[in-house]
Design goal:
Elements: E1 2-7, H1 13-23, H2 32-40, E2 44-53, E3 56-67, E4 71-79, H3 88-102, E5 107-113, H4 117-125, E6 129-139, E7 142-150, E8 161-166, E9 180-183, H5 184-189, H6 191-194, E10 199-203, H7 213-223, E11 227-229, H8 232-237, H9 241-248, H10 252-258, E12 266-272, H11 282-291, E13 296-304, E14 307-315, H12 318-325, H13 327-344, E15 353-358, H14 370-382, E16 385-390, E17 403-406, H15 415-425, E18 429-431, H16 434-441, H17 443-452, E19 460-464, H18 470-474, E20 480-483, E21 493-496, H19 499-509, E22 515-520, E23 526-533, E24 536-544, H20 560-563, E25 567-570, H21 577-588, E26 594-602, E27 605-612, H22 628-645
Helix pairs in contact: 3-22, 12-13, 14-22
């Protein structure tokens, strides 16, 4: 059994009335007219909780909220008697708290029966406290306690403090306006650093070797949730020339341009607080620092034929940098660095968490257009996130963030999967999580998963290299659609119209994969796409086939007007129940992340074509019904997940399906 949440519509009125009659005494029930107004009102929100069964979806919980300027009032909350004691009410209350948190309410208020101690204790579990006794609230002699819960937004987040850690404060008498200098032993031992995560730590110890103080400063800073430079990953990267050269491939054009006039076969560049004292090398120094975030290090280059390569990177100690460049230059560079950092990161005064959005500006058909990405960024800021758009070259900085949102087409054999896996291992909330990428990218997995759950899909056949059965092939209905298991975005998908075409196509496809899936072709003018997050549908679109083509995208078409078909966005309550319920059930077999389920509706039945882990969300397309609220729903899910994960252990190598 699984549940999902959504806002109520007028079609739910009958079930909500029945729920009220089951849960409240007659004189405490809302009238039909009152409930109808609650659903339609702009000043109220009615959240329903549905359970999915084989018979379909039914409402088992309902919360009615009154929206005020600074406070959210929980007018009533009800759970059907047969589902009480199963955690349904707690899930519904958490959803209410998430709604309040995501919409910046300062507090939640409610009224509770003064004689119902069990109910009051239940509310107290969620942080509510009694404030005023309301005489005769329900009826003569029936009193109520007014209860309230302050939200996190009432308190201001303190700004992060910059901390420079040295072997000892006597190492150098640095005087920097925006940073405090402390010794390694002070940082490791003082209680104020142990119990407060609101620090940005810059490790300038003389040695980062394993089991040295400098190493433990970076290691424990990560454990304390401090922002640390360099982190342990960067320290390890500096010891591997293979990793260095692999990452440095991203700066090859800048490297060749900057060193083009150098006649020698080798060149050394010192990068000090992200800068170089050589004006002509500033761009190169910045590019390298963006990939290898350390405060003081030396880059050695060698010329191989006509191409410059990175030969070595070496972390510099503050003592050595001072000996080479002098106190005045180092202090000036450090002061400039921390002044810039302070200006860039003032967000920490007001934002609760950091969100990275991974995208590829050069991608032809990205999951979100620039306007949609901006809408996500705006929604994230409104919900309490500092948000930064990153690309694959920023992979080494993942540990700086609390959450990662991938808005680039994903694949297992791609940096998107590698970054997602690394981010999850670092403790970030990740959408798309690596497990969803693995599961959704393989059509064999999807077929088997859907088949076992008895979800309707086109009649399918698994073809194995070297094990083709003539009788089975002869019995197939044509056309057939052949799919490479890990193909994506309509690529690796081919339609064949006869047995001869099938065999010819399979002989070519077996060069890519030893297993191919074939599915009966179901013609339709459009496919449904249902967007789902947290097992809750959030948008619905009809994607029409490209002109003169059998797919939504025609990858052989050069004319942009004919490359893809049209679309129609509809409200969730206008989607046929069979389509909606099948989409939620299918996506729930993958997980509780963000998915786009593609379905065909034939004679009232819904057939799942695909479950996508990285669904398109474009401005004026998928958001045409909900507008900015669509982005807020997704970002609120991030906030909810971060809050929940703070109290749940993380398992890096295993995650339950």
């Amino acid at each position: 059994m699984y549940t999902f949440f959504r806002e109520a519509n007028l079609n739910d009125l009958k079930q909500i009335i029945e729920l009220e009659s089951q849960c409240f005494a007659p004189h405490r029930q809302s009238t039909r007219r009152s409930l109808r107004l609650s659903i339609a009102s702009e000043q109220q929100r009615v959240i329903v909780q549905e359970v999915m069964t084989q018979e379909g979806a039914s409402i088992v919980g309902c919360a009615i909220l009154w929206v005020h300027k600074k406070a959210l009032r929980l007018y009533s909350i009800a759970v059907s008697p047969e589902h009480q004691g199963k955690g349904i009410g707690a899930e519904l209350m958490e959803q209410v708290i998430l709604y309040a948190s995501g919409n910046d309410f300062l507090r939640i208020t409610l009224e509770a029966d003064a004689t119902n101690k069990k109910l009051i204790q239940w509310y107290e579990r969620f942080g509510f406290h009694c404030s005023d006794l309301l005489q005769d609230y329900y009826a003569d002699g029936e009193h109520a306690w007014r209860m309230g819960k302050p939200m996190q937004t009432e308190s201001k987040t303190k700004p992060c403090e910059n901390i420079i850690v040295l072997d000892s404060k006597a190492t150098a008498q640095l005087s920097i306006e925006n940073a405090e200098v402390v010794s390694a032993r002070e940082y490791l031992g003082l209680e104020r650093f142990q119990n407060n995560s609101n620090y940005r730590v810059f490790n300038l110890c003389s040695s980062y070797k394993h089991q040295k103080l400098g190493y433990y400063v970076s290691l424990l800073a990560s454990a304390r949730d401090h922002k640390i430079i360099p982190n342990v990953t960067t320290i390890r990267d500096f010891s591997s020339i293979r990793i260095i050269q692999g990452i440095a491939e991203n700066i090859t054009p800048q490297l060749q341009e900057s060193l083009a006039e150098i006649k020698e076969k080798e060149y050394t560049l010192d990068i000090l607080f992200g800068q170089s004292l050589e004006p002509s090398m500033q761009k190169l120094a910045k590019a390298i620092h963006n990939h290898f975030e350390a405060l003081l290090f030396r880059a050695e280059f060698t010329r191989n034929k006509d191409q410059w390569e990175v030969k070595r990177l070496e972390l510099l100690t503050l003592k050595k940098a001072l000996e080479i460049y002098g106190h005045a230059d180092i202090e000036a560079l450090a002061d400039s660095f921390f002044r810039q950092r302070r200006l860039k990161r003032q967000r920490l005064k007001t934002y609760h968490y950091d969100l990275a959005i991974l995208s590829n500006p050069k991608e032809k058909t990205p999951p979100s257009c620039p306007d949609a990405l901006q809408n996500f960024m705006n929604a994230a800021e409104d919900c309490g996130f500092f948000v930064e758009q990153i690309t694959k070259k920023d992979a080494h900085r993942i540990s700086e963030f609390d959450a990662l949102f991938i808005r680039e087409t994903t694949s297992v054999h791609h940096h998107t999967y590698t970054i997602a896996r690394s981010a999850y291992a670092e403790g970030l909330i990740v959408i798309d999580d690596p497990w969803s990428i693995l599961r959704c990218s393989n059509k064999i997995y999807l077929y088997e998963r859907l088949r076992r759950a008895r979800i309707q899909q086109p009649n399918s056949t698994i073809f194995q290299k070297g094990k083709l059965q003539k009788d089975a092939i002869a019995a197939l209905q044509y056309p057939q659609v052949l799919k490479v298991p890990d193909g994506s975005f309509s690529l690796g998908v081919f339609k064949v119209n006869s047995e001869a075409e099938l065999l010819d196509a399979l002989s070519n496809l077996f060069k890519q994969s030893e297993v191919i899936i074939g599915q009966e072709f179901i013609p339709s003018p459009y496919d449904w796409r249902i967007g789902v997050i947290d097992r809750t549908p959030i948008f619905a679109c009809k994607y029409y086939m490209a002109r003169g083509h059998w797919q939504i995208y025609n990858w052989n078409e050069q004319n942009n007007d004919a490359f893809s078909g049209g679309y129609e966005t509809v409200s969730i309550d206008q989607v046929p129940n069979a389509v909606l319920q099948t989409a939620v059930k299918a996506s729930s077999l993958i997980g509780d992340s963000l998915y786009g389920v593609d379905l065909k509706e034939i004679n009232g039945k819904a057939y799942v074509i695909e479950v996508n882990d990285n669904p398109n969300i474009d401005a004026e397309v998928e958001d045409a019904v909900l507008g900015k609220e669509l982005y807020r729903k997704i970002i609120t899910s991030f906030y909810q997940r971060i809050e929940r994960e703070r109290y749940v252990p993380r398992y890096v190598s295993y995650r339950k399906s």
